[in-house]
């Protein structure tokens, strides 16, 4: 069960679309970027407000300092009310000031200060005289900005006294501003993120449209509505679509080759089967002669099957090894004489002595077996075969005294399935096979009128 579950899980994962993956990955990157950007913007905004607060409280310190006057060393006088900012004079206004001597004892506080110094003493930082600092502290569950400055005061007698000036400002307005800014920031960043996602989705749809078109065309090819993928694809997909087209063409070519090979095999087996059938019907043959004929034809059939299987997987084999023409031609004519013995044909073979041709043996039997079979089928009484070398070419001609081939259909009969007379038995395969094999050897076929009155088939090979 666990293996099935894992297998199903892996199958489900493999069905994620490329568009979905891109959208999910882009969304993750976008969320990270938006979060990082919001953190940076918010932190920068906080830093800006803190700096503005520091400068404002620094100004408040100088304002407070302007009202201070030292009566004697260690005895600093500051009016109870500070005219510069009325908040110093209003209880619990959120802005207050305190002054400590160098022993950190409170010597003055503004009217706005509401702190119980016995219970909640304001912590003073360690700092140098003349150095202003800003920090955040919490007292009585309330957050404050604390500005601290140590002022050096020199009396007329030359005595120097230190005074701690502390200004406290309630942090609530700061927090409210930050909260409002954060809400606005997240609102607009969310709008931007959604807008970017919509734009990215549209861009990805447009970018991946060629892939969707390729999938659609492949489905049409499966249904037989298209033959190949179109060539209107981006450069990045051109190599892929061209490879797919070549694959489709090769598959169709291979399928066509297998289909044709089956037809060729059936066509090629007709002659040896006919020879055996004729031999079995001929009462004059004794058992030994009949056995020899059948054995010879079965061996021939085995060669034909092997040859056709070879052609189905690799096409016509153009092997440039010469073979003698006359012995091979005699085998073909002997077999055909037995097939057409009722016509009492005269087959005249005139092959130049030692003539050889650069053909594979199987291809030779396939070519001239078909040509001579047609000649014997259409002739009346006589078939003539001649072989000679002319201008460096091996020329083998086959003539008969039959009705001949009209000039207007001479090229048509070389096409697969085309027959000169539909009333005569045959499949229209033989001559198309002849044309294919001769073309593979860069040979030539000429069809003309024979001096015997019938057809002349002239085949030339280098």
Automatic annotation (TrEMBL):
<dbReference type="InterPro" id="IPR003594">
    <property type="entry name" value="HATPase_dom"/>
</dbReference>
<keyword id="KW-0812">Transmembrane</keyword>
<dbReference type="InterPro" id="IPR003660">
    <property type="entry name" value="HAMP_dom"/>
</dbReference>
<keyword id="KW-0597">Phosphoprotein</keyword>
<dbReference type="InterPro" id="IPR050428">
    <property type="entry name" value="TCS_sensor_his_kinase"/>
</dbReference>
<dbReference type="Pfam" id="PF00672">
    <property type="entry name" value="HAMP"/>
</dbReference>
<protein>
    <recommendedName>
        <fullName>histidine kinase</fullName>
        <ecNumber>2.7.13.3</ecNumber>
    </recommendedName>
</protein>
<feature type="domain" description="HAMP">
    <location>
        <begin position="205"/>
        <end position="256"/>
    </location>
</feature>
<dbReference type="InterPro" id="IPR036890">
    <property type="entry name" value="HATPase_C_sf"/>
</dbReference>
<keyword id="KW-0472">Membrane</keyword>
<dbReference type="InterPro" id="IPR003661">
    <property type="entry name" value="HisK_dim/P_dom"/>
</dbReference>
<feature type="transmembrane region" description="Helical">
    <location>
        <begin position="185"/>
        <end position="208"/>
    </location>
</feature>
<keyword id="KW-1133">Transmembrane helix</keyword>
<dbReference type="Pfam" id="PF02518">
    <property type="entry name" value="HATPase_c"/>
</dbReference>
<keyword id="KW-0808">Transferase</keyword>
<feature type="domain" description="Histidine kinase">
    <location>
        <begin position="264"/>
        <end position="462"/>
    </location>
</feature>
<dbReference type="InterPro" id="IPR004358">
    <property type="entry name" value="Sig_transdc_His_kin-like_C"/>
</dbReference>
<feature type="transmembrane region" description="Helical">
    <location>
        <begin position="22"/>
        <end position="42"/>
    </location>
</feature>
<dbReference type="InterPro" id="IPR005467">
    <property type="entry name" value="His_kinase_dom"/>
</dbReference>
<dbReference type="InterPro" id="IPR036097">
    <property type="entry name" value="HisK_dim/P_sf"/>
</dbReference>
<keyword id="KW-0902">Two-component regulatory system</keyword>
<keyword id="KW-0418">Kinase</keyword>
<dbReference type="GO" id="GO:0016301">
    <property type="term" value="F:kinase activity"/>
</dbReference>
């Amino acid at each position: 069960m666990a293996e099935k579950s894992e297998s199903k899980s892996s199958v489900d994962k493999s069905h994620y679309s490329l568009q979905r993956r891109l959208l999910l990955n882009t969304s993750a990157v976008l969320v990270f970027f938006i979060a990082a950007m919001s953190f940076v913007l918010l932190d920068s905004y906080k830093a800006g407000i803190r700096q503005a607060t520091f400068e404002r409280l620094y100004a408040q310190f100088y304002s407070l300092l302007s009202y201070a006057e030292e009566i004697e060393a260690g005895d600093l006088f500051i009016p109870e009310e500070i005219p510069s900012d009325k908040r110093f004079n209003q209880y619990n206004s959120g802005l207050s000031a305190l002054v400590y001597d160098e022993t950190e004892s409170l010597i003055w506080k503004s009217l706005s200060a509401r702190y119980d110094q016995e219970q909640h003493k304001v912590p003073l930082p360690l700092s140098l005289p003349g150095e202003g600092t800003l920090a955040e502290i919490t007292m009585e569950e309330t957050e404050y900005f604390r500005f601290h400055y140590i002022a050096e005061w020199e009396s007329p007698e030359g005595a120097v006294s230190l005074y701690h000036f502390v200004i406290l400002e309630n942090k609530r307005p700061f927090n409210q501003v930050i909260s409002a800014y954060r809400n606005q920031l997240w609102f607009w960043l969310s709008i931007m993120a959604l807008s970017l996602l919509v734009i990215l989705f549209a861009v990805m749809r447009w970018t991946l449209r060629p892939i969707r078109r390729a999938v659609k065309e492949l489905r049409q090819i499966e249904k037989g509505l298209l033959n190949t993928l179109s060539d209107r694809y981006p450069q990045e997909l051109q190599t892929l679509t061209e490879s797919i087209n070549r694959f489709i063409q090769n598959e169709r070519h291979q399928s066509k080759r297998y289909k044709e090979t089956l037809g060729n095999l059936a066509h090629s087996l007709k002659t040896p089967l006919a020879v055996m059938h004729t031999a079995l019907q001929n009462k004059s043959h004794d058992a030994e002669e009949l056995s020899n004929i059948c054995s010879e034809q079965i061996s021939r059939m085995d060669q034909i099957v092997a040859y056709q299987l070879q052609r189905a997987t690799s096409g016509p084999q153009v092997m440039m090894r010469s073979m003698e023409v006359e012995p091979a031609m005699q085998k073909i004519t002997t077999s055909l004489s037995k097939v057409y013995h009722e016509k009492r044909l005269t087959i005249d073979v005139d092959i130049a002595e030692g003539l050889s041709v650069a053909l594979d043996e199987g291809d030779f039997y396939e070519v001239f077996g078909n040509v001579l079979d047609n000649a014997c089928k259409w002739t009346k009484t006589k078939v003539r075969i001649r072989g000679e070398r002319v201008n460096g070419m091996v020329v083998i001609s086959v003539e008969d005294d039959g009705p001949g081939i009209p000039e207007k259909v001479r090229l048509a009969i070389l096409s697969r399935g085309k027959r000169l007379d539909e009333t005569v038995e045959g499949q229209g395969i033989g001559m198309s096979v002849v044309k294919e094999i001769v073309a593979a050897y860069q040979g030539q076929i000429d069809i003309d009128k024979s001096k015997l009155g019938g057809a002349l088939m002239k085949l030339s090979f280098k």
